[in-house]
Amino acid sequence: MTDQPINPLHTPLCDLLGCAQPVLLAGMGGVSRWELAAAVANAGGYGILGMVREDPALIAAEVTALRDATDRPFAVNLIPAATEPALLDAQIACCLDLGVPAFSFFWDVMPDVVARVKRAGCLVLHQVGTVEAARIAEEAGADVIIAQGVEAGGHVHGRHPAFGLAEQILAQTDLPVVVSGGIATGEGLAAALTIGADGVQCGTAFLATEESFAHPYHKSRITEATGDHTVLTDVFVLNWPKGAAVRVIANSVTESLDGHYLGHDPDSLPREAIARDGEQPRLRFSTDSPLRTTTGDLEAMALYAGQGVGALNDVPTAAARLDGMVAQARHLLEHPF
Known about the structure:
Radius of gyration: 19 Å
Number of strands: 14
CATH topology of the largest domain: TIM Barrel
Largest sheet: 8 strands, parallel
Shape: globular
Order of helices and strands: HEHEHEHEHEHEEHEHEHHEEHEEEH
Distance between the termini: 30 Å
Number of helices: 12
CATH class of the largest domain: Alpha Beta
CATH superfamily of the largest domain: Aldolase class I
Strand order of the largest sheet: 1-9-8-6-5-4-3-2
Helix content: 25-40%
């Protein structure tokens, strides 16, 4: 009887989450809808629905559609600190009523929120930007820590490089640690596993796929950009707490800042509608990115992208993106020299 070959990509995280590959879809608000989450899950990764500040009715519709498209486990991403309390309560109640198996949280750790979903038997993945936040999340009951580096696209909570932060967190916890920020290739996945992390979380790499709910314009800007084209700024802050920085592809809005990317007060920013999603206006300086349904001045909106964007030159299916990452990582881990 021969032993089964060791799979260098199968980590304890895979067993905990019920996925075949240690690659998580970032819960990108607006972008990580059921179609993308199902595609990632069906390809062996872990799907996370981005439901930040969404109406419970939409959450119910998205969860139902996701379950119709896959039987794989998944999580719902919420941002407690950036959501009005009554809406957050309704969102969580909706998810629990639907039997959502796991939650992905981000920004400030709110122990009472973590405790509520843990009491219901749910898994909790918590994305953090500092070692201290990781400690607080673990004490609150998180099952997985996602170490987000400053290289990440979208909202960035910390200012530390992803791998350095992950190594510090690994030194203080026995929980599975996932690296997030600027990872778009199998090389990044292999590097994460090599330092002892359990997997990676990818946003930009999956934003630029066919199933992503991002607008084709956003996807095309990603395929044209390099990491040097991204900037970290808090000018796209409407709808989020003051000081919430995001990494975006430079555009006319960031170029008008003359290098003063941080320190903007949302109360001093004008409320000017520049685009729409149906009847919903999208404001200049808001955190909204252009979606399939968005019309208007897309160039002036927040075009989220991480520093790994230079490796993304096409818009394949999510499965093709994931399969390519996994194949490259497997080769590097099995042939390190």
